[in-house]
Amino acid sequence: MSKRVITFGTFDVFHIGHINILERCASLGDTLIVGVSSDELNFSKKQRYPIYDQESRLKIVQSLKFVDEVFVEHSLEKKREYIEFYRGDMLAMGDDWKGRFDEFNDICDVVYFPRTPSISTTEIIEIAKKF
Ligand code: CTP
């Protein structure tokens, strides 16, 4: 039976760490579905809007050859609904989230991948600000 993998993230100022995790997620199954967090959700989490708006972030992620479906994640509280609606057999996340999604083990397999070292959106923004 074909396996559907789901993952979530902001994917702002797209970088190699994003590519690596999406590639790893895709390698777990046959179909990769990516929930891209909305601009408002980011504002509520970090008190700042992403540099790239949600339409741009969605378009970037959707254009990757190993991504099959994308949708906008509007609420952190709806993870379970999203997993069920998109029929995820597996939820895969970077290990900065380790343990935080274990509650969904009752509806799918939950996997955490090591982050790519030494790169993040926050760090890129900080470096860019210095110029
Ligand atoms: N990720 C990763 N390795 C990195 C950066 C991110 O594996 N170096 C993963 C995260 O663990 C997550 C996904 O990429 O599963 C999306 O992360 P996101 O928060 O959008 O990227 P960050 O670069 O971590 O952004 P920020 O600095 O704003 O937290």
From TrEMBL:
Alphabetically, the GO molecular function entries are: nucleotidyltransferase activity
A Pfam match: CTP_transf_like
Keywords, A to Z, come to: Nucleotidyltransferase, Transferase
**The organism's place on the tree of life at top rank:** Bacteria
Task: Cite the InterPro entries for this sequence.
Answer: Archaeal_FAD_synthase (IPR050385), Cyt_trans-like (IPR004821), Rossmann-like_a/b/a_fold (IPR014729)
Q: Please state every residue range assigned to the domain named Cytidyltransferase-like.
A: 6-126
Q: Which residues form a coiled coil?
A: none
**SUPFAM superfamilies to which the protein is assigned, alphabetical:** Nucleotidylyl transferase
Among PANTHER family, the record links this protein to: FAD SYNTHASE
Protein name per UniProt: Glycerol-3-phosphate cytidyltransferase
Organism in which the protein naturally occurs? Photobacterium profundum (strain SS9)
